[in-house]
Amino acid sequence: MQRSTSKGLFELFSSMRFAISLLTVLAIASVIGTVVKQNEPFNAYLNQFGPFWFPIFEKLGLYAVYNAGWFLVILAFLVLSTGLCIARQTAPMLREMRGFREHAREVSLRQFAHQAELPGGLPLGEQQARVAAYLAQQGFKARSDQREDGVLLAAKQGSASRAGYFLAHGAIVLICLGGLLDGNLPLKVQMWLGGKQTTGGNQLIADIPESARLGEDNRSYRGNVFIPEGRAANVAVVSLDDGILIQELPFTISLKKFHIDHYENGMPKRFASDIIVTDDATGESFEHTIEVNRPLEYRGVTMYQSSFDDGGSLLKIAGRNLAAGSQAPVLEIEGRVGETLQLNHPRFNYALELTGFTPFNVEDMGEGARAAEGAEGFTRHLGSGARATDDGRELRNIGPSFTFKLRDEAGQAREFKNYMLPIEQGGRWYLYTGTRATQAEAFRFLRLPVDDDGSIDTWFALRDIVFDPARRDELARRFAHTSFGDGEDTAELRKRLIETAVNTLMLFGEKGYESIGTFIEKGVPQAERERAADVFVKILQGLVWEAWQMTREQTGQAPLAIDEPRAAYLRDAIAALSDSLFYEAPLFMQLTGYEQVQASVLQVTRSPGKPLVYIGSLLLVLGVFAMLYIRERRLFVLLKHDGNGLVTLSSNRKAIDVDETFERHAAALRGLLDPAAPAPEATPRGQ
Amino acid sequence: MELAHPARSPSGVLRNRDLFDWLYALALVAGAGLALVRYGAFMDIYDDLILLLHVPVLIAIGWYWKPFRSFLAAVAGLSLASIWLYQGDLARAEQVFFLKYLISSQTAIMWMSALYFMATGAYWLGLLARSEFGEKTGSTLVWIGTAMGTAGLFARWYESYLVGPEIGHIPISNLYEVFVLFSLITALLYLYYELRYGTRRMGAFVMVVISAAVAFLLWYAFSRGAHEIQPLIPALQSYWMKVHVPTNFIGYGAFALSAMVGVAYLLVERGILASRLPAPRVLEDVMYKAIAIGFAFFTIATILGALWAAEAWGTYWQWDPKETWALIVWLNYAAWLHMRLTKGLRGTMLAWWAVVGLLVTTFAFLGVNMFLSGLHSYGNL
Ligand code: HEM
C-alpha cells in the first residue's frame, strides 16, 4: 500500500502532464509580481490597497512575490519534478541511446507507422552488403541480427538528441539551484540562525545595532553604497522586507567625482564614478572609473554604477511670505539637501525638508509640430531618419530646480518643486513653482510673471495691496477716481463703482476667479453671464493696474502708461493672483544660489550562484538545440531468404520530415535491391 | 507535396554547389576581408569576431536556402548605393532623387510598408480566387519589401553616424527600429517555410500579422515622430544589445508566425477555406517548426539578456517585469512543446495554444512597455 502510494507520487511528479501543469502554474504565478509593484515601502502599499487589503496582501507575500514562500515552493516543485523526470528517464534513455533493438521481431516491426516492402530476388548476402553500405553512407550506425528466415539490419542515427534531454533538463535544475543561492533565501536563513534583524531606514549608519549588521564572511548579498563626492563608505545597505541590513565590505570606496555627460539634446550619455578603492586588510589602494555597463570586481565583490543622487548640495533660499496682506521681510534660509530645517519665524511653525536639487532641466519648450496634411505630410517622412528641423520641438535647458517638503505641526506635508530661473513661454517670462500633496500626483504649477527687471517683486507688491482688506477701500476709490475723474456729475457713478469694486476685491480675495464665477452663476441670468464676466474682468484689471501705480508711487517711481506688454503682464499677474490662493503654502521659496555636491550609488554584489547559472545556461542552449534539431531516426531493414524484405522507420518526434525521410530511404532501398538495378557503386550519394 | 531536400553528408554539401553558390561565398569572403582591411582600425575584437562569424553563417544560409543569395546581393547593392549617394552628407537625403524617393532609410522603410500591404492583398486574392499568379505576386512583393526594409535599416545605421559620430549605433535600440526588425524577420521566416513546404497559401495569414506590425509602425512614425534617430542612453551602450535584441526578435517573429498558422489550422478544421489552405498536418508541422526555432532562439535571447543585465544592473535576474514576461513566454512555449510530445494532445488544442501564445508574446513585447514600469526603459509609448 505504502509503496504503491510513493510510486504513484513518483509517477505523477515525473509525468509530462504534471510538467505541463507546473510550467503553466509558474507562468501564471509570475504575472502577479509584474502587476503589483515589488519591494516598495510598505506605506505606499497601505495607500494603494487600503487598511483592509494591505495586511492580507502582506501575508500572501505579494509585495515580494518572487521571494514568497509559496512561490519558492512552486519553483521547488519544478526542480523536484525535473529531477524525478531525469531519474525516471535515465535508464530507458541510456538503453535507447546505446541499444539498436536488433532483436526486434517482425510482428512488432509490422506495427510501425512507416513501413514498406522491399523487392527480393538477389542473394541475401548481396542484399545485406548493399543495404549495409547504403546505411553507412547515409550516416547510420547499424547492427545486424541473423535469424532463421533472414537477417535484420537495425540502424540508428541522431542518438545525441537524447543527450540533449539530459543537458537541458539538468540545466534547469542547475539554474534553479544557482538562482536560489543568489536570492534572498541565504540571507533569511542567516537571519534566522544568526539572530539578525532588519532595522528602520532613517538612522545614522554608526547607530545601527550589531543585530542588523552582516559580516564580511557573508557570501551572498546585493546592496547599495551611497557615497557623496569627496566622501567614503565601507558598508552597503541591503533592503529586506520593509527594513534594512548593513553589509560590511572588505574595502573602502571613496568617490572623487561623479560625472553625468549629456548629448546635445539633453539625453544622458554617460554616468561614471571616479573612485578610489582601499583594501581594509592590506591598506593597498587603487583608482578606477566605474560606468554603466562597465562594472568593477574586487575581492569577490562586484561594483556597478547603479544610480546617483544629490550628495548634500548647499542651497540658498529666499522665503517670501504669502500670507495675505503681510509685508513681512524676506526670510533668508541656507541648508543642504537632505537636511530638515525648522523655520524660525513667529508666524509659521513649519519644518522645511530639503529633498533634492537638479542643476539642469532639459525640457521641450516648443509649440508642437505644425500639422502638415496630405502629400506634404507624407513626404516629410521620407528621407533620412535624422530629426526634422521643423518638428516644433525645442529642447532647452531651463536651469536649476530644487524640491522640498513643508511639514506643518500636525505632521502634514506638501511637496514642492521650484525652478530657480524664469522660463519663457510664448514670449513672456515666468517663475514656476509646482506643488502636490502626494508622490502619486503630478506637480501642479503656479507661474508667477516676472517684471521688466526679471524679478517677481512687482507681483508680490501687487499681491500685498490687492489681498489686503485694509486697503480695499483706498484701492477702489482710486480706481473710481481714475475711471470717472473728480467731477460732481459723476459722483453717483463713482459711488456705484466703488461699491462694485470693493465687492469684486472681496470676492476675488476669497478664491480668485472661482468665487467670481460662482457668484455670477448664482446671481446672474444665463443670458447676461458673459457680459457680467466681462465687466468683472475689466474691473479687476483696472484695480490691479491701479495697485501697480500705487506700488510705484510708494517707491517714488513715475506712473506708467498702458501698452500691450503691460496689459499682458496684467493678465498674467491676475491669473497668478487667483491661482496663488490655491497654493497651500505660507511661503514661496526662491532659490538664490547653490553649490552642488553629487553622490553616486553603487550596487555591490556577491553572487555565489552565478557560475552555476552560467554553466546551466550553456547546457540549456546545447540541450535545447540537440533535442530540437538532432533528429533521432531508426531504420530497420529485414531481409529474407525467400521473398520480399521489409523496411520500417521509427523516430522519437512526429513531423512531416520523418515521413519524407522514410519515403526517401524506402525508395533508395527499393532501387538498390531491385535485381534489375546496376551495381551499387553507381548510386548517387547525398540526395 | 514536394519538399526540398538539402544535401546531407559533408562532402555532398561541397559537391552539390553551383557556380552562383561559389560566387556568393566568394563575395561574402571578399566583402568581409575588405571591411577588415579598410575599417579594421575602427573595430574592436568583438566587431572583428562578429564580422568573421557572419561569413560562414551567411554562406550556410545561402547555400541551404537558395533565394537568400539573391536577396543578400540585393540588400548589399541597395545599402552600398545608399551610402555612396550620401557621400557623407546627411542633407543629400533631401536633394538627391534616389535618396529622397528610394533608398534613404525612411523612404526604404516606407517602400517596405507599402510592399508588405500590397503583398497581403495579393496573397488574399491568390487564396480566394485560387490564383497562382496572385500568390506568386505576393511572394515577389514580400521579397522586394524585405530587401528594401533591410537595406533601409542598414542605411539608417549609416545615417546615425552622419547625425553625429557619438550618436551612431546599430538601429535596434528603440521600439520603432525593433518593429521594422520584427516585420523583416517574420517575413524572412515565412519566405523560408514557403519554399520548404512548397506552398504559398499560408502567406495570406502570416502577412496579416506583419501588416499589423507595419500599421503600428506607420502610426508610431506619423503621430509620434518615433522614426527619429536618437542617441543611446548609457544602459543600452553595450555589446550585448547587438546580440540580445536580434535573437529575441527571431523568437518573437517565429511565435507570431506559428500563431497565424494556428489560425489557419483552426479555420481549416472548421471547414473554412479548407479546400484552399494546405492540409492540417502541414499546418501543424509548420506550427511546430516555427515554435521550435522560436523557442530555441528565445532561450538564447533570454540568456543573453541575463548576461547583459548582470553587467548593466548587477544581477542576471531580478524579476523586472520585462524579464518576468520573457520567462512567462518561455514557459508557455516549453509547455506547448511538452504538450505536443504527449500523445493525444494535438491539433486543435495546440493551435489554440499557439494563438493564445501570440497574445502572451505581444504583451511581453509591447504591453509591458505600455502598462508596467520597470528597468527596460526604451520604447515607452
Ligand atoms: C522549465 C522547464 C522545462 C523546459 C524548458 C523543458 C524543455 C524541453 C524541451 C525544449 C523539450 C524538447 C521538446 C521537443 O523536442 O519538442 C523537452 C522534452 C522533454 N521534457 Fe522538458 N522541459 C522542462 C521541464 C520538464 C519537466 C519538469 C519534465 C518532467 C516531468 C520534462 C520532461 C520532458 C521529457 C520526457 C521530454 C522528452 C525528451 C525526449 O523524448 O527526448 N521536462 N523539454
Automatic annotation (TrEMBL), chain A:
Subcellular location(s) per record: Membrane
Pfam family, one: ResB
GO CC annotations, alphabetized: membrane
Membrane topology: Multi-pass membrane protein
Transmembrane helix is among the record's keywords: yes
BP GO annotations: cytochrome complex assembly
Keywords, in A-Z order: Cytochrome c-type biogenesis, Membrane, Transmembrane, Transmembrane helix
Stretches that traverse the bilayer: 61-87, 163-181, 612-630
Domain ResB-like: 16-663
InterPro entries, per the entry: Cyt_c_bgen_Ccs1/CcsB/ResB, ResB-like_domain
Name of this chain's protein: Cytochrome c biogenesis protein ResB
Species for this entry: Pseudothauera rhizosphaerae
From TrEMBL, chain B:
TM helices/strands, residue ranges: 21-39, 45-64, 108-129, 141-158, 170-192, 204-222, 249-268, 288-310, 322-339, 351-372
Record's keyword annotation contains 4Fe-4S: no
Keywords annotated in UniProt: Cytochrome c-type biogenesis, Membrane, Transmembrane, Transmembrane helix
Coiled coil: none
Biological process annotations from GO: cytochrome complex assembly
Domain Cytochrome c assembly protein positions: 173-376
Tree of life domain: Bacteria
Protein name listed in UniProt: C-type cytochrome biogenesis protein CcsB
Native species: Pseudothauera rhizosphaerae
